[in-house]
Amino acid sequence: MSFMYNPFPYDDPRPVNRPAIPAEAAEAVVFGSLNSAKHLASVIEERQNASGGRNIIVAMDGYATAEWTEMVNLLSQQLTAKGIVPEQIDYLDNLRSEEEINAMIDSGLEWDREKDPTLLYGKIFKDGYQALLDPEKIEAFRERMKEFGSAKEGRVAVVCGNGCLIPENDGLFDLRLYFDVTPKESILRIRRGQYVNLGQKDARPANQIIRRCYYADFEMAVHLRRQLLRDGAVDYYVPADKPGNLQLIPMASLKAIFSAMAAYPFRTKPVYLEGVWGGTFVKKLRNLPAEMRNCAWVFDLIPMEVSIVTEVAGNLVEFPFQTFFTVDSEEVMGDKCAEKFEGYFPIRFNYDDSYHSTGNMSVQCHSGEEYNKENYNEFGRQDESYYVVQAGHDAKTFIGFRDDADVDQFIREIKIADKEYKPVDYMKYISYEESKPGLQVMIPAGTVHSSGRNQVVLEIGSLTIGSYTYKLYDYLRPDLDGKPRPIHTYHGERTVARDRKTTWVRENIVQKPRTVRSGEGWAEVIVGESPLLYFTLRRLEFEKEIGDNTNGKFHVLTLVDGERIRIRSKEHPERYFDAEFMDMVVVPATIGEYVVENLGVEPIRVHKTMLKDGFENE
Questions:
Q1: CB under 8 Å to 351, separation ≥6 — which residues?
Q2: Could you tell me if 526 and 516 are in contact, meaning their C-beta atoms sit under 8 angstroms apart?
Q3: Does the structure show a pLDDT above 50 at 485?
Q4: CATH topology identical between 271-304+344-508 and 514-617
Q5: What's the fold here for domain 271-304+344-508?
Q6: Average pLDDT for residues 59-63, to the nearest whole number?
Q7: Backbone dihedral region for residue 78 (phi beyond 0: left; psi -120 to 50: alpha; all else: beta)
Q8: What residues have CB less than 8 Å from 45, skipping those under 6 apart?
Q9: CATH of domain 25-261
Q10: What is the mean pLDDT of residues 401-428?
């Protein structure tokens, strides 16, 4: 689910975080592309003068789809006005041949359409940027840079290219810039024809570019970015989503900004997607554009897909959420969590909206940890859960097989349906619960399930970096583009848990709420907890306020009934975030004791997700 192919090009203006950022850090940030280029030119001139005219080398690295042409041209204008004509060097000239790189990466991608009808899957490329470099070319480049950088000729070279700041190039450059791009903007750039995969001359179809990005280009960029920022191995960080409004953030300021953000409850900026079963509830609630056909998915807090917006010196700065939490992972998630999940945020959150829609979500299942490792070289498993936030007439949540289901026959029928376009009476096989607000269903990997039409569910899942959703049956309907939706019976047959039937489901993963603590006018209840999932699902119920404590583990709170709440630190009450209906807020691990206050008049229900005690041993 978290593998984003078609984000709607809409920027939600509401989720803005306003932590108190140290004045010195905020004042050091340069806003605007031209101002940033002027500042860089001045820094280069100062360094050159201080070194007696030694040549200066500037390196510009960045996330996949990053673009440095604007900055290079503006910097060239500024330097030329000072009598310095810079030389631009394309770092990607040091790559191996296209044929060699294709052989390295494409061999790990699935090309069998029987197994993978939409060519979605593959194996993570783990060898990094260094493996893509031609040994002779990169050695000659490094010698050239050493010779250039030691000469006192008053010259400037600007090296641009993904991966130029790898550790093997450490010490070559005088100024190091990292251009970051949010996940949504990266996908939109690919779809606008602004990116070709590393090592390729010509663009493949957009979906194939995105797939290769996920398994290679994005993977390499994520790991290098994390290493560079955690080590402080860049001089300036550049949020680069918006041409004309590039921002130049010194590394010390970036760390101060992130540290301030991690001391507050915060909200990320959602991504909205249309879908064949998409509904209308969220579209109306959040005033989404009229031209959106519907809103099927709301990626409110899918870590690899969302961004976080922060006000800095009266300006809005947008970071990929992953950039923020990998730099401050211990503060946000807690030490044990950061160690256990290798710096990845371990839970993902989104809404599935089928309210007043054309039909159900597909009947589907997901794969577990061992299957993901073996088939995709992937870190993480795909457990899920549904919490029904809104339900209309006849809404159903499908979960598990019926007690009397012949699962082998179901598998045979869905295969025939996929090949011969024959409908399947899925109600003969799939069990369901009548949906009503407050229903919590846990969905351990392998459990067949579907969110039925006419409801909005809060979907909460385990760490899965990719999209390992196997559609078993999709009612023979076409997608929004009129093409038949692909079915993944190959992987689905191998991962579906055939023994999870109605009786087992109701005894294990559809539970009655049980109170864990309470007082006058408030209570906390467990709505879902299982040995098969490493997180626990709870609900805070109160009239005026309720207190809580992170105890070294992050919490995620979602207002699922009520108008408005304030989530504030008890020790530092000025550190708070005000949330409205269906907003999701992260309470960082370091906050400790906090209070949730009712800012309206009606009773409040807040869904709370956190890691279970002892999660690090699972």
A1: 282, 297, 298, 300, 389, 456, 457, 458, 459, 582
A2: yes
A3: yes
A4: yes
A5: Jelly Rolls (2.60.120)
A6: 98
A7: alpha
A8: 82, 84
A9: 3.40.50.300
A10: 96
Do 104 and 125 touch, CB atoms closer than 8 A? yes
With cut-offs at 50, 70 and 90, classify the pLDDT of residue 479: confident
pLDDT for the residue numbered 312:
98
Task: State the average pLDDT over residues 255-278.
Answer: 97
Strand partners, 587: 555
| Chain segment 557-598, per-residue pLDDT in tens | 999 999 999 999 999 999 999 999 999 999 999 999 999 999
Task: List Cβ neighbours of 134 (8 Å cut-off, separation of 6 or more).
Answer: 94, 95, 96, 97
DSSP string, 74-117: HHHHHHHHTT---EEEEGGGGB--HHHHHHHHGGGB---TTT-T
d(CA 435, CA 231): 49
Is residue 540 packed enough to be buried (19+ CB in 10 Å), middle (13-18) or exposed (0-12)?
buried
Whether the full predicted model's pTM is greater than 0.70, yes or no, is: yes
Position 1, amino acid: M
Q: So where are the chain's domains? A: 25-261, 271-304+344-508, 514-617
Work out the average pLDDT over 103-118: 94
The answer to whether residues 387 and 435 touch, using CB atoms and an 8 Å cutoff, is: no
445 contacts 381 by C-beta, under 8 angstroms: yes
Environment class of 597 (CB within 10 Å of its CB; exposed 0-12, middle 13-18, buried 19+): middle
Predicted confidence (pLDDT) per residue in 81-94, tens digit? 999 999 999 999 99
Residue with tokens 């490329």: 125
Backbone angles phi, psi at 567, to 5 degrees: -110, 115
Q: What phi, psi does 592 have (nearest 5°)?
A: 70, -125
Are the beta carbons of 359 and 453 closer than 8 angstroms?
A: yes
Are the C-beta atoms of 568 and 265 separated by less than 8 Å?
A: yes
Q: Is the alpha carbon torsion for 407, 412, 417, 418 positive or negative?
A: positive
**Contact indicator for 175, 235 with CB cutoff of 8 Å:** yes
Residue 476, helix vs strand vs coil: coil
Can you tell me which residue has the tokens 């959602």?
270
Averaged pLDDT for residues 332-340? 94
What pLDDT, on the 0 to 100 scale, is given for residue 95?
98
Greatest pairwise CA separation for the chain in angstroms:
85
| CATH number belonging to domain 514-617 | 2.60.120.10
- State the average pLDDT for the chain: 96
Asked if the model's pLDDT at residue 1 lies above 50, the reply is no
CB neighbours of residue 378 within 10 Å: 23
Residues 6+ apart with CB under 8 A from 53: 152, 153, 154
- Whether 15 and 578 have beta carbons less than 8 Å apart is answered as no
Q: What is the DSSP string of 183-241?
A: HHHHHHHHHTT----TT-SS---HHHHHHHIIIIIHHHHHHHHHHHHHHT--SEEEE-S
